Amino acid sequence: MGTSRRAGLGSLLLMLLACARTLAGEPGCAAGASPFTPWRTLTHGLVQDDPLAATRTRRQSLRLVAPVAVAARGNDVYVLDAMQNVVLRFDLGLGTLARIAAWRGSALGAELLAARDLTFTLLDPRSGTITQYTREGALLRQLDPSAWPGRPTTLVPDEAQGGYLVADGLAPQIVAFDGLGAVRGTLGGDAAAPLPVQRIDALAAGRDRLYVVDRSSHEVIVLARDGAVLGRFGGADLKMPTAIAVDGYERVLVADGFDNRVKLFVGGTLTAAAERGAGAPGRFREVRDLWVDGALVYVCDTLGARVEILHLDPPCR
């Protein structure tokens, strides 16, 4: 019952926001209007009973210091803070914060994934390990890095087919895993059928296609599920792409480290960009990660010590 109540609070807030937009005449569709609306800023929260504390202490407020990865499902927002070496879970409905898992891996390139079953998964690129936890931070399973040849560098959910995808940092290949960590298949990595990219710096999965960021070419390569190239975009609009995500309408969001903006591409065309959230310090300072959950875009701003939540309007009719 408690979970349903929390989910209801979040749903009510989104319904109110949607109603306000409808009464205002869908501002994102007006000429020159942005489809992005800053909704909420996560910088701190009241800590729940702390499973990582040595002794039981009075509840206190905890602030983000250096968030490097974010993932969200419903009211649950998971944040990896590299400076505090911990995974935190914000509850948007209750406004509370929980320290749920210690982190001893590399902050550079760490990846975080939240699944529909409320588990979350961490990728440590330094050790090559992929570890899955329950919502409360209990260890479920760890993928043996020797289970497949390569060095995992990118971890993304595969909503269309279930499970998740992992990009290899040694050879341009993408490995598909099911929800239990078993290998479903591999794309690329074969001399006879290599992927047409030099490297995979970031990855996102749509309904029937994959989006690969290759920073050496400053562009996004669109691949079919069989590895065929469907197109390329962003070469003239991206200077230092750092993160990528796809929403339910197959719109692509790319964080550009050159100007610290989150850029929205529709059909390969740049249509809008967001450069600030709802709270201080105003403009994004270093966007390390992006996550999309429904109509909400989560922007992990490391130097800004915050996670900004933006509402993204649906496409104009």
Order of helices and strands: HEEEEEEEEEEEEEEEEEEEEEEEEEE
The CATH superfamily is known as: TolB, C-terminal domain
Structural class: mainly beta
Largest sheet: 6 strands, mixed
Task: State Rg.
Answer: 19 Å
For the record, the CATH class is Mainly Beta
- Strand neighbour order, sheet with most strands: 3-2-7-6-5-4
Number of beta strands:
26
What percent strand? over 45%
Contiguous helical run count? 1
CATH architecture: 6 Propeller
Poorly predicted segments: 1-8, 22-27
Rounded mean pLDDT is: 85
Shape: globular
Annotated CATH topology:
Neuraminidase
* Helicity level: under 10%
End-to-end C-alpha gap = 38 Å
Number of domains: 1
Features:
globular; Neuraminidase; four-stranded antiparallel beta sheet; six-stranded mixed beta sheet; disordered N terminus; mainly beta; 317 residues
Tell me what you see in this structure.
The protein has 317 residues and is mostly beta strands. It has a single domain, classed as TolB, C-terminal domain (Neuraminidase, 6 Propeller), CATH 2.120.10.30. 7% of the residues lie in helices and 46% in strands. It contains 1 helix and 26 strands. The chain has one helix at residues 2-23, and strands at residues 36-42, 44-47, 61-63, 67-73, 76-81, 86-91, 96-102, 111-114, 120-124, 129-133, 139-143, 152-157, 164-168, 173-177, 183-188, 202-205, 209-214, 219-224, 229-233, 241-246, 252-256, 261-266, 269-274, 287-293, 296-301, 306-312. The strands form 6 sheets. Strands 3-2-7-6-5-4 form a 6-stranded mixed β-sheet, with no helix packed on it. A 4-stranded antiparallel β-sheet has the order 1-26-25-24, with no helix packed on it. The two termini are 38 Å apart. The relative contact order is 0.14. Residues 1-8 and 22-27 have low confidence and may be disordered.
